[in-house]
Design brief:
Layout lengths: L1 E10 L3 H13 L4 E4 L52 H16 L5 E4 L2 E7 L2 E6 L5 E12 L16 E2 L4 E3 L1 H4 L9 E4 L3 H12 L7 E4 L4 E5 L9 H17 L3 H10 L4 E2 L8 E7 L1 H7 L5 E2 L4 E4 L3 E4 L2 E4 L5 E4 L18 E3 L7 H14 L3 H7 L11 H17 L2 H8 L16 H32 L1
Parallel strand pairs: 1-2, 1-6, 2-3, 6-19, 7-15, 8-18, 9-10, 9-18, 10-14, 11-13
Antiparallel strand pairs: 4-5, 5-6, 11-12, 15-16, 16-17
The structure holds flavin-adenine dinucleotide (FAD).
Flavin-adenine dinucleotide binds next to helix 1, strand 4 and helix 4.
């Protein structure tokens, strides 16, 4: 059995594990071993459907030390006027270069792909090669870093949560692009970003909207792409942040919070006629939203229980189907929501969201780990913030995120680090301080922040009492 010794054993080479390691070795001389059961870094992006793209700009995704893409604003195509968004293939190529050039190139990191982490035994940690079955034992001098805790379940690697008759045509979005036998119609199952991408792709590839049926058990809130911008377009992000802060400060109750967010355009329902029940941070341009709204055949009868040869059984009814019809499984959650754990625990660091994107959360966790000694203090600065998907949890998410931001502002070194952090959305703000929209937004944020936090605490209590 091979044995290794290291400071940090990072389990998982997705966006979280890669970003954590990148920041950690930039801030310290730590030695790191990374293990992943996939052959390549990049996590779920390696198995993503071919038409996937980031829904946020590439300019704020990836690791801190290396740019993803060229920070260009697209001039043509559906993303015209907004910062470029990498494809899945670009993201995978990017993480491979980060691994080879930044991480392995530093001499501080060793990578073991195609290897399953098994767990600790007798004070040491073990992983096993999926190719040879050989076990490696690792002595960890500082911490094990669990970068798998909020890993992304995706259609290509999950099992659908419903029964399927063997003759029914059920495909993943990955398989959809390879269809050889034409369908007599499509049913897209799920209401998250993957289902939006899939419906958009079908429409863009010539499928008439009348031939698409969309099973959406719960409708989602979405964000506007024009707000989720950075660098030269950062004023619109700051405007968005100030409107959200104002709504948080002034809302009388939970429904009023959403009314205010919707009225100011901070969030937009996918269907203007239907009150959304979920929020997962999906970002759409108005053109994409308008396109998706062309699909009128939306089934809202709960979750699919069973796909049979001639009917789909749902919680609250059945709808007909047939064996030439193609069903697309978009039901994987995209982000796991296990029970929250302290990020800094006695035996390990568990990477979780503090704010979106998860890569930013991993970067600040690594920064805090390398600059602070006390775990209680580290946990104060990096609180876990679960993305449950339930719309009313946006209150809790906003509250935890705002408290964390307020805590960071009190720490001069973190403030300074944030200003130079490539993957914090607010990069560019300090280059545009003379822009009246930034000035106005910063003033409104400063004015409302304290009352927003106090009011969100009250709203969270209200939401808790109404559900208990
Ligand atoms: C289709 C899609 C689009 C998305 N778009 C965006 C976006 O635009 N912006 C955004 O911020 N977020 C987006 N997300 C959210 C996404 O979850 C994060 O961006 C991020 O990629 C998740 O990274 P992760 O490292 O947490 O998880 P993963 O990418 O799932 O990585 C976890 C890794 O751990 C490994 N692993 C697990 N268990 C073990 C074990 N026992 N031994 C060894 N290895 C193990 C897995 O093989 C995997 O490689 C998107 C998610 C999906 C599904």
């Amino acid at each position: 059995m091979e044995t290794l010794e290291t400071d940090y054993l990072v389990v998982g080479a997705g966006a979280s594990g890669m970003t954590f390691t990148d920041t950690l070795i930039g801030e310290s001389d730590a030695d790191v071993v990374i293990v992943d059961r996939r052959a390549n870094p990049g996590g779920h992006w390696n198995d993503a459907y071919p038409f996937v793209r980031l829904h946020q700009p590439s300019a704020v995704y990836g690791v801190n030390s290396r740019r993803l893409g060229n920070d260009e604003i697209d001039e043509v195509g559906p993303n015209a006027g907004f910062y470029e968004r990498a494809t899945g293939a670009e993201i995978c190529g990017y993480y491979r270069r980060v691994l080879d050039q930044e991480l392995l190139g530093s001499g501080q990191v060793r990578f073991f792909g195609t290897s399953n982490y098994i767990g600790p035994e007798g004070g040491r940690h073990r992983f096993e090669s999926r190719l040879t079955g050989e076990t490696t034992e690792v002595t960890v001098r500082r911490r094990v870093v669990d970068a798998t805790y909020v890993e992304s379940p995706i259609p290509a690697t999950h099992t659908p949560p419903f029964d399927v008759d063997p003759d029914v045509r059920l495909v993943t979005p990955n398989e959809l692009v390879d269809l050889t036998d034409p369908a007599d119609g499509f049913t897209v199952i799920g209401a998250g970003k993957t289902s939006m991408d899939t419906c958009g792709w079908l429409l863009n590839n010539g499928v008439p909207s009348a031939e698409i049926r969309w099973i959406r058990p719960r409708d989602p809130w979405t964000h506007q792409r024009r707000h989720m911008q950075t660098l030269e377009l950062v004023p619109s992000l700051m405007e968005w942040a100030s409107l959200r802060m104002e709504a948080a400060a002034k809302a009388e109750d939970v429904p009023d919070f959403f009314r205010r967010l919707e009225a100011s355009g901070v969030v937009v329902p996918l269907d203007p006629e239907i009150e959304p029940e979920t929020w997962r941070g999906a970002i759409l341009s108005q053109d994409e939203r308008d396109d998706l709204r062309r699909i009128r055949n939306v089934i809202r009868q709960g979750y699919v229980q069973c796909l049979e040869a001639d009917r789909i059984v749902l919680d609250d009814g059945t709808v007909p189907t047939d064996l030439q019809h193609v069903h697309v499984d978009c039901t994987a959650h995209g982000v796991k929501t296990p029970p929250v754990r302290p990020v800094f625990g006695p035996d390990r660091i568990t990477l979780q969201y503090t704010i979106i994107p998860v890569s930013f959360s991993a970067a600040i966790t690594a920064y805090v780990e390398s600059t602070r000694d006390d775990d209680a203090e580290k946990n104060r600065l990096c609180p876990p913030n679960p993305l449950t998907g339930d719309a009313e949890d946006l209150i809790q998410y906003t509250l935890i995120g705002q408290r964390a931001r307020a805590a960071w502002r009190e720490e001069p070194d973190i403030e300074d680090w944030l200003q130079h952090c490539r993957i914090g959305f607010v990069q560019g703000v300090h280059d545009h301080l003379d822009d009246p929209r930034i000035q106005d937004a910063l003033e409104r944020i400063a004015e409302c922040q304290k009352s927003a936090i106090a009011n969100l605490e009250r709203l969270r209590e209200l939401a808790e009492t109404s559900t208990s």
